[in-house]
From TrEMBL:
<dbReference type="GO" id="GO:0006457">
    <property type="term" value="P:protein folding"/>
</dbReference>
<dbReference type="InterPro" id="IPR007206">
    <property type="entry name" value="Protein_HGH1_C"/>
</dbReference>
<feature type="domain" description="Protein HGH1 N-terminal">
    <location>
        <begin position="94"/>
        <end position="277"/>
    </location>
</feature>
<dbReference type="GO" id="GO:0061770">
    <property type="term" value="F:translation elongation factor binding"/>
</dbReference>
<feature type="region of interest" description="Disordered">
    <location>
        <begin position="333"/>
        <end position="354"/>
    </location>
</feature>
<dbReference type="InterPro" id="IPR007205">
    <property type="entry name" value="Protein_HGH1_N"/>
</dbReference>
<dbReference type="Pfam" id="PF04064">
    <property type="entry name" value="DUF384"/>
</dbReference>
<protein>
    <recommendedName>
        <fullName>Protein HGH1 homolog</fullName>
    </recommendedName>
</protein>
<dbReference type="InterPro" id="IPR011989">
    <property type="entry name" value="ARM-like"/>
</dbReference>
<dbReference type="Pfam" id="PF04063">
    <property type="entry name" value="DUF383"/>
</dbReference>
<feature type="domain" description="Protein HGH1 C-terminal">
    <location>
        <begin position="283"/>
        <end position="336"/>
    </location>
</feature>
<dbReference type="InterPro" id="IPR039717">
    <property type="entry name" value="Hgh1"/>
</dbReference>
<dbReference type="InterPro" id="IPR016024">
    <property type="entry name" value="ARM-type_fold"/>
</dbReference>
<comment type="similarity">
    <text>Belongs to the HGH1 family.</text>
</comment>
Length: 354
């Protein structure tokens, strides 16, 4: 005989919406505690849950919460992330300005992006909402949702913060990195320049995801001149500002720093999350792959900023990253032996998932 829980799972597909709602509402905690109850009959309950994403908003809210929780299971994640029709439904709903569960849909997409084949989203298209001002590429629509929806002006129900995690995981893939640094025809903007401003946003999720996205895209070494150029991506002010506090610097050093970093207010605070600080320092380390990058960082006095970060952030990961960057910036270029940087770069050339 089926257990009470198994019977409850069976009610997911009940034709009565009140019964369905009661079932999924009560199953939410078990999606974390006992995910195996949803894996019976060759994942038949998952099939039903995917269909219920289209259900009444309250039912869909519970269903999406369950799917977000269950997508931590690799077998279920594969089932969700490889179901093209299901993904199309999720993408259609999240771009609706009236969608009440848009944040849950963003969280689900953040989990689905961990499956490698999800990178095929770069090929997906759908008509954009008129109010979004985007083009038909889904990836551009998600980027515009993230930017324009940050203050709730696109959809009063959502801030789309978790799309930052989607971008971070997608940026593990070369073709997505190329998209993020390529100027788009519909708005003449480079996607990465749209999100760089969020490195000092109030949302921890948004800051963390954006920091990881920037770092992952920075693994594309040929794009570094664009990263560094003031009239292109110009990433350095947006990476350096979050790791700076209200420290006083030598006047000559301060005047040589980037204009945005000079004369910071006395209440300026460093990002409180040491993992985010570490990610930004690791991005700087990646950008020292070229002589141009190293010389520029020396010229604009990145070393004093890293020195203060090392001194004031009591975190092993941050301090190790700072030490590695300092070793690169302080060495004598003329005495560098060929291949001397190989080992350090190999250690760092590992994408850090969010």
């Amino acid at each position: 005989m089926p257990t009470e829980l198994e019977e409850l799972v069976g009610f997911i597909a009940n034709p009565n919406p009140q019964v369905r709602q009661l079932a999924v509402q009560n199953l939410v905690p078990f999606s974390l505690e006992q995910p195996q109850i949803f894996k019976t009959e060759e994942l038949k309950p998952i099939k039903h849950l995917k269909l219920l994403v289209r259900d009444q908003p309250k039912i869909a809210e519970y269903v999406l919460t369950i799917l977000v929780n269950l997508s931590g299971d690799r077998e279920i994640l594969e089932n969700l992330a490889t179901d093209d029709k299901f993904i199309d439904v999720v993408l259609l709903f999240i771009t609706s300005p009236e969608e009440p569960n848009a944040n849950l849909l963003a969280m689900l997409l953040a989990n689905l992006a961990k499956w490698d084949s999800f990178k095929n989203i770069i090929e997906k298209k759908q008509p954009p909402p008129e109010t979004l001002g985007s083009d038909e590429l889904i990836l551009n629509q998600l980027m515009d949702l993230f930017v324009k929806g940050a203050d709730g002006s696109f959809n009063k129900h959502a801030d789309y913060d978790y799309l930052a995690y989607v971008f971070a995981d997608l940026a593990k893939h070369e073709e997505i990195r190329q998209h993020f640094i390529t100027r788009q025809d519909y708005d003449s903007a480079v996607p990465l320049t749209k999100i760089r401003v969020f490195t000092e946003h109030k949302s921890d999720v948004r800051r963390k995801g954006v920091a990881s996205t920037i770092k992952n895209v920075a693994f594309d070494v040929p794009s570094h001149p664009s990263f560094l150029a003031e009239d292109e991506i110009n990433i350095l002010p947006y990476v350096l500002l979050p790791i700076m506090g209200s420290e006083d610097y030598d006047e000559d050093d301060m005047l040589a720093m980037l204009p945005d970093l000079q004369l910071l207010p006395p209440d300026k605070q460093r990002d409180p999350d040491p993992k985010i600080v570490q990610t930004h320092v690791e991005t700087l380390l990646l950008l020292t792959s070229s002589r141009e990058g190293r010389d520029l960082m020396r010229e604009i006095k990145v070393y004093p900023i890293i020195r203060e970060t090392h001194l004031r952030v009591n975190d092993e990961g941050v301090q190790e990253a700072c030490e590695r960057l300092v070793q690169v910036l302080m060495r004598d270029e003329e005495d560098e032996a060929p291949g001397a940087r190989g080992e350090a770069e190999d250690d760092d050339m590992k994408i850090v998932e969010v």
